[in-house]
Amino acid sequence: MKHSPPHVLALLSGGLDSILAAKLIQEQGVGVTCLHFYTPFFGKPHLIPHWEAIYGLSIQGIDLGEAFVAMLVKRPERGFGSVLNPCVDCKILMLRHARALMEQYGACAIISGEVLGQRPMSQRRDTLQIIRREADVKDYLLRPLTAQHLDPTWAEREGYIDRSRLLGISGRGRTPQMALAEHFKLQEIPTPAGGCRLAERENARTYWPVLRYIPTPHASDFYLANIGRQFWHWENGIGRLVIGRNQADNDALMARADSADYLFKVKDFPGPIALARFTASPPPDLIAAAAAFMATYSPKAVASAVDAVSVRVHQGHLDTPGEEILVQPTRETTPAWIEYSWETANSEIRDEAKSAAKRKHPGGWKEREITEKD
């Protein structure tokens, strides 16, 4: 059934390519509704009003956090990139959600800003075809910036979209995109992609222990991993200690605290807020160790001449009644609190991938070369 005027859904990361793809189709007089998916790892829903104003696009924010975390917990079928980035499975997940919304919006196609050969993991020709097939969008996914290198889609064959006005960009160069940005007189030139924290080692090392040790992680557990300094304890159940770096972190920790979480604040000296979360009821010595550890991040408390400092411990919120405990600030606590390194996380990620490959292909597994990906 034809729609008049035609309408499409566009995946919008906030990066330049996705904006250009949407504008290229909009230029044909086709209605475009942009979908901005966000999770703890990517997305900037707070910028949607700004983007709508400066780019002249209609944008819907869609929280994909729980579905994305469920995919990570199960482990992405096509593995991780060079860090902890499941680029191919991520794109499939977003497209499946967009496909489910096509009827609601009366859309004849889904468009994305992918460019053939731009990214070595997720934008090879064979991978682009896998993504279309696995997301069940084989005849509906249109990539306007690189369409001339790909087969025509249903919307092109039916005349909803003029294929002759689509482009044939390929490779990693940015010159055609910059020329197109000038053509559309974009007020701001964003980065090539929206940015994914899973592709950055410093972030991935804080996400990995959440994924490995928390029995049933949720999006909120990973949002917490975006805040402050992260430390772990494994002896009496799983314990997690997050210490703010600045006032913004302190505010974020208080906003993210659950009723069962413990909040710590040094009483008589300026310093950070710390949040501790446990999978089982913690013994008193573990609470004391957390208090002594976090107190070391109050420089004035450490520099004071007193034998011990007072730390207030609350559950759920700093306004709730709490108790004061006296501790000597130290990072050599018993039980210990450990910060995960990228080297440890990377080794465990790769070891798990090798074990999974051996189980999937017993007797025929061969370690593949780990190359730099997305």
Write structural notes for this entry.
The chain has helices at residues 16-26, 48-55, 65-74, 87-105, 125-134, 154-157, 175-183, 201-213, 219-225, 247-256, 284-295, 299-303, 342-360; strands at 7-11, 31-38, 58-63, 109-111, 141-142, 229-233, 239-243, 262-266, 273-278, 309-315, 323-327. The protein is an alpha/beta fold. The strands form two sheets. The chain has a six-stranded antiparallel beta sheet with strand order 6-7-9-8-10-11. A hairpin with a 6-residue loop joins strand 8 (262-266) and strand 9. Helix 4 crosses helix 5 (125-134) and helix 8 crosses helix 13. The protein starts with 6 loop residues before the first strand and ends in a 14-residue tail after the last helix. Mean pLDDT is 91; it is low at 367-374.
Show the helix and strand layout.
Elements: E1 7-11, H1 16-26, E2 31-38, H2 48-55, E3 58-63, H3 65-74, H4 87-105, E4 109-111, H5 125-134, E5 141-142, H6 154-157, H7 175-183, H8 201-213, H9 219-225, E6 229-233, E7 239-243, H10 247-256, E8 262-266, E9 273-278, H11 284-295, H12 299-303, E10 309-315, E11 323-327, H13 342-360
Parallel strand pairs: 1-2, 1-4, 2-3, 4-5
Antiparallel strand pairs: 6-7, 7-9, 8-9, 8-10, 10-11
Helix pairs in contact: 4-5, 8-13
